[in-house]
Amino acid sequence: MNNKNVVYNKVKEFVRKYPGTIAWRLKAHSRVAEKYLNDDEEVLYVFAGQKGPSSLDMIRTYVVVITNKRFILAQKRLIFGYFYHSITPDLFNDFTIKSGILWGRIIIDTVKETVVMTNLSKSSLPELETVVSKYMIQKKRSYKTSDEEDKDILSEESE
Description:
Layout: H1 6-17, H2 26-35, E1 43-51, E2 61-67, E3 71-76, E4 82-87, E5 92-99, E6 103-110, E7 114-121, H3 125-158
Antiparallel strand pairs: 1-2, 1-7, 2-3, 3-4, 5-6, 6-7
């Protein structure tokens, strides 16, 4: 699959649909994310926001890419380098949506860390909740099925 500009086009669509979201340098951040997409990955959803607990910090824009295999968080640094995080579905615990006076935030709790995306348009929160919850439910079901198969294999081996 050709992933060229698919992330940028989808994040542009998100920001156009929800103009209250604060996000900068989307093309540069999208290029970092696209660099790490595997050939067998399909981009399902993309959004942007500020990564960090404070809504006052408006210079930490990250692009969040939800693929059929994982979450990718990417930020191109201003001068040189970039930040890249990958969260596989087996690490998901839960997530929370919070709405404030001006913006909203999504808090994704994983086994290793808590990822907070702030300065999201309040009108984007229902869509983000739907996308993330459907994704987590689907992936948790597939992991439960594979865990049950692993238990069956282990019980057969012990007999």
